[in-house]
Specification:
FAD/NAD(P)-binding domain; 18 strands; elongated
Length: 413
């Protein structure tokens, strides 16, 4: 039986990148992939265009991973977003950056170019890849060698990198195998839930506005009577609820049954807005409510819907509205209420929230604190990024750090 320096589980972005990074250091590397081909999920990223990193400054980058960004700091600074761009450029894959949000894509806007580049880099680094090899169990012998059991074969390695992904898009093979392997070796998991996913809203009243989008809209998440989180980004109305970056970023914090309030006015001082609102109504008492409301509502359709929900005739004069009714209209615009019925499942969620507990992994090396010699990279860890290339950058960075540390240990003998 061949003894490899490194055995990597998973031929997704983290697995392939770790393989290349280890292989280029002269190590013997084999990647075990349970599917018949590599990178199925990678091909779906960015709607097939593969937003593979982001050019935001690194100090801001760390803040794009919810509460766990600090865990990634060493990895991100060891292999940066600019390093990712240079890596693919050296493979002949030019990139383009979208100025509005700093997302970075291959110039071709083809995810297959990123995958093919990774495979080419692995080939140049003499990495072996074996497909249809689902790892069933990992054992560490008394001599410290890892044995990985597949259906018909067993593989041996001095080190293991677990890069089997999460649970999102299970049709691509990302169905939680990595979590089960980690648990069997003694790791604990934080609760798993869909991330970067839309919300279906209970008794949704804005279905007629499906397709409407709102720029830089603030949503506040309420859990019980407490404000849990307020985020601001773009929002899209769907037939069943809401989607878009601001919703996707909230998904890591939200649960079914939580309440939301949407601020369509974006006023910094609600009390001043209230006073100006009432004063303006008094000054324009002869105006029809629908005409006047268009000055404050982002879209006419939203304004008309608010009038309908408030049971106010669009032709009614402002002077005819009671103070209670006037403030009700303002409340719909400043804090439009919703209740989350469900969050998009793993079939449509872009990432997995939760995973192998980050405190059980050394952030400076990506080595397991539970199983010496085993490293973890990518989505199997309890980290998830905002939409915009952050999750793929986490794959590149954690994989590079793991391979770097294994190389140092190998050199040290």
């Amino acid at each position: 039986m061949v003894l490899f320096d490194v055995v990597i589980i998973g031929a997704g972005p983290a697995g392939l990148f770790a393989a290349q990074q280890a292989g280029k250091q002269g190590m013997s590397v084999i990647v075990l992939e349970k599917q018949a081909e590599p990178g199925k999920k990678l091909l779906l990223t960015g709607s097939g265009q593969c937003n593979f990193t982001n050019q935001r400054p690194l100090p801001e980058f760390v803040n794009c991973y919810g509460e766990h960004g600090r865990f990634l700091k060493t990895a991100l600074y060891n292999f940066t977003n600019n390093d990712s761009i240079r890596f693919f450029q050296d493979l002949g894959i030019k990139s383009i950056t979208v100025p509005e949000n700093q997302k970075v894509f291959p110039k071709s806007k083809q995810a297959k170019d990123i995958l093919n580049g990774l495979l080419r880099a692995c080939q140049l680094s003499h990495v072996q890849i074996q497909y249809q090899q689902a790892v069933k169990a990992i054992q560490r012998t008394a001599s410290g060698i890892f044995e990985l059991s597949c259906a018909a074969k067993t593989f041996q390695g001095k080190y293991v990198i677990l890069a089997a992904g999460g649970m999102s898009y299970p049709a691509t093979g990302s169905n939680g195998d990595g979590y089960r392997l980690a648990q069997a070796l003694g790791h604990t998991l934080t609760p798993l839930k869909p991330g970067l996913a839309p919300f279906a809203i209970k008794n949704f009243s804005l279905a007629s506005l499906a397709g409407s989008s709102f720029k830089n809209l603030a949503i506040t998440l309420w859990q019980g009577d407490k404000k849990a989180k307020t985020l601001k980004h773009d929002l899209v109305i769907t037939h069943q609820g809401i989607s878009g970056p601001v919703v996707h970023h909230l998904a890591r914090y939200a649960n079914p049954g939580d309440k939301l309030t949407l601020d369509f006015m974006a006023q910094k001082n609600p009390e001043q807005s209230r006073n100006r609102w009432l004063a303006d109504m008094n000054h324009n008492g002869k105006a029809q409510t629908a005409t006047w409301l268009r000055r404050f509502s982002p879209t006419q359709a939203l304004g008309d819907k608010i009038l309908e929900l408030s049971q106010v005739s669009p032709h009614e004069r402002l002077a005819q509205l009671s103070k209670t009714k006037r403030l009700e209209l303002l409340a719909w615009l400043q804090a439009f209420p919703m209740e989350i019925q469900r969050i998009g499942n793993f079939e449509i969620a872009m990432v997995t929230c939760g995973g192998v507990a980050w405190h059980e992994v050394n952030a400076k090396t990506m080595e397991s604190r539970v199983v010496p010699g085993m490293y973890l990279a990518g989505e199997v860890l309890d980290i998830d990024g905002d939409t915009g290339g952050y999750d793929l950058q986490a794959c590149w960075s954690t994989a590079a750090l793991a391979a770097k540390h294994i190389g140092k240990r190998r050199q040290a003998g």
